[in-house]
Amino acid sequence: MEEKQDPPGAGRPAVTTRTMEIVVALLFLSLGGVVAFDSYRLGARWAEEGPQSGYFPFYIGLIICVSSIVTLLQALFGKAAGSNKNIFVERGQLRQMLSVLVPAAFYVLGIQLIGIYVASAVYIAVFMVWLGRYSRFKSVALGLAASVSFFVMFEIWFKVPLPKGMFNPLGFLGY
Length: 175
Description:
The structure is a single chain. This protein is mainly alpha-helical. It folds into 2 domains: about 15-85; about 90-175, no CATH class. The chain contains 5 helices and 4 strands. It has helices at about 15-40, 55-75, 90-115, 115-130, 135-155; strands at about 15, 45, 50, 85-90. It has a two-stranded antiparallel ribbon. A hairpin with a 2-residue loop joins strand 2 and strand 3 (about 50). Helix 3 (about 90-115) packs antiparallel against helix 4. It is flat, with a radius of gyration of 24 Å. The mean pLDDT is about 90.
């Protein structure tokens, strides 16, 4: 019986839980700060006719900021602050997650440039070849079949135009 080997880098920490707690606390602190600042700019007071438009969002932003500061202080000075043993994600797991996230980001960019139909066909085909280990012919055929199906369904049957992209490679079809 053949033993299953872990991918290279598996077991080695890429990021600790403490680091992620600090990063997330800082992100939420900045988000809460933006909400509170913009709500104050809109009007966060109680007027004669009632609360101004930024009254409730301002206090929600403050609550987010206070919660983020508490989380940040716990991560920096709490009992587990000196411990970097809690692994948030291992290198092998991070590599697997990025193997999906990075192509998805390129897909979103592709939608903006070449439209959803062409970008989807490419995305499906690349994923099938790269992660699914399917043949190139089958991958391209299924990617094209899915995109053509969605094109017919949305553009022709439902008359709902989907993004064509800046370069609109399907412009020759009149869509």
